[in-house]
């Protein structure tokens, strides 16, 4: 059995997992807080549990401010967590910089939203990729081996011929080419996990698909576990195997992408899909659109995360709200239409189903 056969055979194996991941940011205290002797926090992420698997893409979908980028930064350990665990191959991992962080980053790499900001404008592509290869010990022992590794990286992200790009500066490349360089730099570590934070949202629509196809190709050829963070639920259906939905710092729905996008269970996921521009992303969306006024679909503003709503955080906007929703926090409940489909919503509580 070859190495790639072995990796393929392990497709689906859990690589990186979060359990009860929570991040609260302290709010700077004003005069009123000092007088009242109170400290407040932003509940950016509360009790997030997810598993990233070899050779699979997991989409994390939600509005701006829902906490999805904070989850990526927690998983990359750029942020320390308030509570919860991160497990890499089953072992709890907590790193705070230095050699331990570099060892972790060798296995878990992040791709940022803005490829221009993530590349230093005064350095060439050769500099960026050489640095990534050397930091992670993948630059070879000779100049020739380094050159070979540089060419392999650029070829892997379809920037060919590599010599055309190596000595260019970031501003000489298009947005899509810059994001490919950022992906190549991440691959320089030879990682097992890619955390891609809105990797195409700053690119022209015409080149987004090319970058998503590249990530999908890497998932299939290198058997990477990929977290794909996006506010565009339609792209999650196209690109991800599993889709998780976040609202106001909490995960509210999860399941395979086809089920979540075609038969959304949580009222917030339905709202997201009804607001998406692609009318084919959900069965019956035209009927649903006709049944709700635009005001219904807009559904008001996301809540304050300093004083989030009690019970279900979506209850002030929810068209299906019930008395218990503002009091009791709904757990993950099985929807029952497909394996692994769940929603944190009281509509799926056994005592509510069929009412
Ligand atoms: Fe709406 Fe209640 Fe479900 Fe929350 S728990 S989404 S308020 S029905």
Task: Summarize it.
This protein has 355 residues and is α/β, with parallel strands linked by helices.
Q: What do these coordinates show?
A:
By secondary structure, the protein is an alpha/beta fold. It contains 14 helices and 12 strands. The protein has helices spanning 3-9, 31-36, 68-75, 98-107, 115-118, 125-135, 143-156, 175-187, 205-222, 233-239, 257-262, 267-275, 285-291, 294-298, and strands at residues 14-26, 41-53, 57-61, 83-88, 91-92, 108-111, 193-197, 225-230, 242-247, 250-256, 333-334, 342-343. An 8-stranded mixed beta sheet has the order 6-7-8-3-9-10-12-11, with helices on both faces. A 4-stranded antiparallel beta sheet has the order 2-1-4-5, with helices on one face. The protein starts with a helix and ends in a 12-residue tail after the last strand. Residues 279-298 have low confidence and may be disordered. Keywords: ATP-binding, Nucleotide-binding, Transport. Residues 29-273 form the ABC transporter domain. One of its GO terms (molecular function) is ATP hydrolysis activity. Residues 279-308 are annotated as: Disordered.
What attributes characterize this protein structure?
355 residues, ABC_transporter-like_ATP-bd, eight-stranded mixed β-sheet, Oligopep_ABC_C, ATP binding, Peptide/nickel transport system ATP-binding protein, nucleotide-binding, single chain, four-stranded antiparallel β-sheet, globular, binds iron/sulfur cluster, alpha/beta
């Amino acid at each position: 059995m070859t190495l790639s056969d072995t990796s393929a055979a392990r497709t689906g194996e859990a690589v990186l997992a979060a359990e009860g991941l929570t991040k609260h940011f302290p709010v700077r205290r004003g005069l009123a807080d000092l007088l009242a002797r109170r400290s407040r926090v932003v509940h950016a992420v509360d009790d997030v549990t997810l598993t990233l698997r070899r050779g699979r893409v997991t989409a994390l979908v939600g509005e701006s401010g829902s906490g999805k980028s904070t989850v990526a930064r927690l998983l990359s350990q750029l942020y320390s967590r308030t509570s919860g665990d991160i497990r890499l191959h089953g072992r709890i991992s907590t790193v705070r910089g230095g050699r331990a962080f570099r060892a972790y980053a060798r296995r878990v790499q992040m791709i940022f939203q803005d490829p221009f900001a993530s590349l230093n404008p005064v350095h060439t592509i050769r500099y960026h990729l050489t640095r990534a290869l050397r930091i992670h010990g993948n630059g070879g022992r000779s100049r020739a081996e380094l050159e070979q590794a540089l060419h392999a990286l650029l070829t892997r992200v379809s920037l060919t011929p590599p010599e055309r790009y190596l000595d260019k500066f970031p501003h000489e490349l298009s947005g899509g080419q810059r994001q490919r360089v950022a992906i190549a730099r991440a691959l320089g570590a030879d990682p097992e996990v890619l955390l891609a934070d809105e990797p195409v949202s700053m690119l022209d629509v015409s080149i987004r698909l090319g970058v998503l196809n590249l990530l999908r190709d890497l998932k299939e050829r290198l058997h990477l576990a990929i977290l794909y963070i996006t506010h565009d639920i339609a792209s999650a259906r196209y690109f991800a195997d599993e889709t998780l939905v976040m609202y106001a710092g909490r995960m509210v729905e999860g399941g395979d992408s086809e089920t979540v996008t075609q038969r959304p269970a949580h009222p917030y996921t339905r709202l997201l899909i009804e607001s998406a521009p692609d009318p084919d992303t959900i069965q019956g969306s035209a009927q649903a659109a006709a049944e709700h006024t635009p005001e219904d679909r807009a559904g008001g503003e996301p809540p304050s995360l300093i004083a989030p709503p009690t019970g279900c955080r979506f209850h002030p906007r929810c068209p299906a709200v019930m008395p218990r929703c503002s009091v009791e926090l709904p757990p993950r409940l099985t929807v029952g239409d497909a394996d692994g489909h769940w929603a944190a919503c009281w509509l799926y509580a056994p005592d509510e189903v069929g009412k």
